[in-house]
Amino acid sequence: MSHGGAGIFAAPGAGKTAVTLRAFLALKQAKVAKRALVVATLRVAYKVWPSEPAEWAGSEWDNLKNLKICVLHGKQKDYLLNEDADIFVINFDGLKWLLANHKKEFLKLKIDTLIIDESTKVKHPRTQRFKLLKYFLPTFSRRWILTGKPMPRSYLDLFGQIYVIDLGRALGHYITHYRTAYFFPVDANGWNWVLQKGAEERIQAAIAPYIFQLEPGDYKEIPVVENIIRVDLPEDARKVYDELEEHLITEIDDDVISAVNNGVALGKCAQVANGGIYRERQTGFDEEGKPNWNKRTWIDLHEAKTEAVVELVEELQGSPTFVVYDYKHDLARLKRALGNPPHIGGGISPKESDRLIDAWNRDELSVLLLNAQSVAHGLNFQYGTARNIIWHSITYDRELFDQLNMRLARQGSKYNSIFAHFIVATNTVDVPKMQALRQKGKRQDEFLLALKQYAKEKRK
């Protein structure tokens, strides 16, 4: 409330949404704020922000129900833009519609508070999303960002997020200036940058005045306990894996699978480690001579990971369990093996997702298959008795990893810990993926700890 530009760095489930609504309501009642625009992922826009006030009914925050919240999405969004709402919520992909196609209508609303929910979505300053938002940033008198993991990859992730807050005061007005001030290139083309000596401390000191962090005693912290389950690839699958890794090409029956470079080969190797691989795309032509991509098909190679998931689910004896998948062929194998449980991912509508989330929180589902990209941010799955996540497919992305685990490890959970089970194929790309997750997590934890320590020292 005392900072026009500010960020909350706090773990998922710590209460960032409720805190932000309470602060905005207080400012509105004091007549120093009028309207807010919240930018969030689509499911969070629909499921979290409009429903949050009801979570506090009958409590000291009961007056949150007085805020009128309008979601700008769907066929009626042009009409909804005329609503006399206190808070408009839009997804990131809707920014172009609002700020480019309806610029005049947007400016007439005189929205004075901008809230970016999950600010890592604007960490890249060269994206169209950031450039469009940047033009309108000065129109907001208050700009707040919310995230649990501000730097999932490196300190370079901070620039775009902090710029939203302060328009370049802390870290500079351009990403190029930020890089030259705090980093140095390690290759001739300037693709890779590493921190200069002492740069970490200088960055922390520059942004600390803008950042609020919740202390461990302010909310319930729920640790994630890791359990590694290793499986070996069957002989035939190992042969396919090794040929792809070493020669970028392999043959499976009458299908030839190839990779144009090592990066593509690693992606295909990750598929093989999981149990299948997509066939090469083939292009046909329609009656007008236009290219017509055939529907992608795949080859199932083994069930090593699938069998490990089934054994673990049986061992958990009916305890509600998430199973995280990546590829469509992963989903197909898991559905066959587990008796066709429901899933949330590609092709599932927001309405159906909401139904499944509600059923999950009522403990009506024993297994729910999840695509990490679809559910990682903002959604609340913690109100039932679930405490287990099985990672059938391992990710490189520390942000996705943390965010999805925190769908269970958040306030509202009945437990003091949750369990993340990783099905790791030995001697495959799964192994460096796990190493990368831990290294990224260590760097981010060190950053947040240092930032918190800096703030404490300053208060002294």
Structure description:
With 460 residues, the chain is α/β, with parallel strands linked by helices. It has 3 domains: 214 residues, 3-Layer(aba) Sandwich (Rossmann fold), CATH 3.40.50; 138 residues, P-loop containing nucleotide triphosphate hydrolases (Rossmann fold, 3-Layer(aba) Sandwich); 68 residues, no CATH class. The chain is 38% helix and 20% strand. The chain has 17 helices and 21 strands. The strands form 6 sheets. Strands 3-4-2-5-6-1-9 form a 7-stranded parallel β-sheet, with helices on both faces. Strand 5, helix 6 and strand 6 form a beta-alpha-beta unit. Helix 4 packs across helix 6 and helix 9 crosses helix 17. The mean pLDDT is 85.
